[in-house]
Design a protein that fits this description.
With 374 residues, this protein is α/β, with parallel strands linked by helices. It folds into two domains: 4-266, TIM Barrel (Alpha-Beta Barrel), CATH 3.20.20.105; 273-368, no CATH class. 41% of the residues lie in helices and 19% in strands. It has 15 helices and 16 strands. The strands form four sheets. Strands 4-14-13-12-11-10-6-5 form an eight-stranded parallel sheet. It has a three-stranded antiparallel sheet with strand order 1-2-3. Helix 7 runs parallel beside helix 8 and helix 14 runs antiparallel to helix 15 (355-368). The structure holds zinc ion. Zinc ion (ZN) binds next to helix 12 and helix 14. The site of zinc ion (ZN) has 8 residues, from helix 12 and helix 14. Pathway: tRNA modification; tRNA-queuosine biosynthesis.
Length: 374
């Protein structure tokens, strides 16, 4: 069975469809929970699947340093290692080398750096990134790219984009012929339309199974991001999935889907779940807040997650304040459920041609804010 993408319906620029892989289908628009170090923190894989997630994201940078790609391969690959049999997408390591590693040295060949874990020296090139992602057994592999730290001059953004396009060609070459697995190219170019166009043309001439929009959600703000998303998705092939990397808050996700994005990932629902923050249909709720201390109501009575089915706001408040592990477990489960429910809601709305009404309801309920205090 090969990797394929089927577009089922569109509503304006918004799209819904399905990616088929030998490890199962991915319904789009799809949100990918982040399983950085071979775990979605505080969640069992079966719980992640129960929320409706069809695919997880794994981080090449973290896994190459610990436990190491060769070790994961000897233990049967990442799916078996972490007990997740559905599709996995891995990033290329490029972004995290630039944001986490020490003593980086960037050349045409690749990046030399020291591990933030133990100081050991490593080299990441397009070829090595492809090898690591193959050893992990990733279903969707990302090209090795350079994302310049912002703020950066347009000249610097252009230089990084052109290097990334040369690396995309080397990534394609090194990936080889692997039926059932996909390689995605990554569009760069910051917030400059001409650079985005140049990048899209370079990627299309190489040819990929899917295309990512990179270099956004790096501090430019929602307005600037939506400004790029007003034109960038349409520069990419209509018959291939489009993946917006590292996004985002629920309203970012809705705005991206509205503009033609099919896939997204973000640490936000899991990370904020570990700091007492919940995302609901009525916006963000801080469970540390004293107003919840004697509130017997669930976080969201319309939610089917374990936290909302079995526990009160008062209990969640207590375990967050007490620093109990179950706080992170319950709030992560809730946040991932909310994100997947949002994706399912958007897929249904696009299929039925009522995305605009869905969007209006989404904003209206959030504008009301959290339920009245008791
Ligand atoms: Zn819930």
């Amino acid at each position: 069975m090969r990797f394929s993408f089927t577009l089922d319906a569109t509503d304006g620029a918004a799209r819904t469809g399905r990616i088929d892989t030998p490890r199962g289908a991915i319904r789009t628009p799809a949100f990918m929970p982040v399983g950085t170090a071979a775990t979605v923190k505080a969640m069992l894989p079966e719980q992640v699947a129960e929320t409706g997630a069809d695919i997880l994201l794994g981080n090449t940078y973290h896994l190459m340093l610990r436990p190491g790609a060769e070790r994961v391969a000897r233990l049967g690959g990442l799916h078996r290692f972490m007990n997740w049999d559905r599709p996995i997408l891995t990033d290329s390591g490029g972004f995290q080398v630039m944001s986490l590693a020490d003593l980086r040295k960037l050349t045409e060949e690749g990046v030399t750096f020291r591990s933030h874990v133990d100081g050991s020296k490593h080299v990441l090139t397009p070829e090595r990134s492809m090898e690591i992602q193959r050893l992990l057994g990733s279903d969707i592999v990302m090209c090795f790219d350079e994302c310049p730290a912002l703020p950066a001059t347009e000249e610097r953004v252009a230089e990084a984009m052109r290097l990334s396009m040369r690396w995309a060609e080397r990534s394609r070459e090194a990936f080889g012929d692997r039926p059932g697995h996909a390689l995605f190219g990554i569009q760069q170019g910051g917030v400059t339309r001409a650079l985005r166009e140049e990048s899209a043309e370079a990627l299309k001439s190489i040819g990929f199974e899917g295309y990512a929009i990179g270099g956004l959600a790096v501090g430019e703000g929602q307005e600037a991001m939506f400004g790029v998303l007003d034109y960038a998705p349409a520069m990419l092939p209509e018959d291939r999935p489009r993946y917006l990397m590292g996004v985002g808050k629920p309203d970012d996700i809705l705005g991206a889907v509205k503009r033609g994005v099919d896939m997204m990932d973000c640490v936000l629902p899991t990370r904020s779940g570990r700091t007492g923050q919940a995302w609901t249909r009525r916006g963000q709720v801080n469970l540390r807040n004293a107003r919840h201390a004697e509130d017997p109501r669930p976080l969201d009575e319309g939610c089917t997650c374990p936290a909302c089915r079995g526990y009160s706001r008062a209990y969640l408040h207590h375990v967050v304040r007490a620093g109990e592990m179950i706080a992170g477990m319950l709030l992560t489960a809730h946040n991932l459920q909310y994100y997947q429910d949002l994706m399912a809601g958007m897929r249904g709305a696009i299929a039925e041609g009522r995305f605009a009404a869905f969007e209006a309801d989404f904003h209206a309920l959030r504008a009301e804010g959290d339920i009245e205090r008791l």
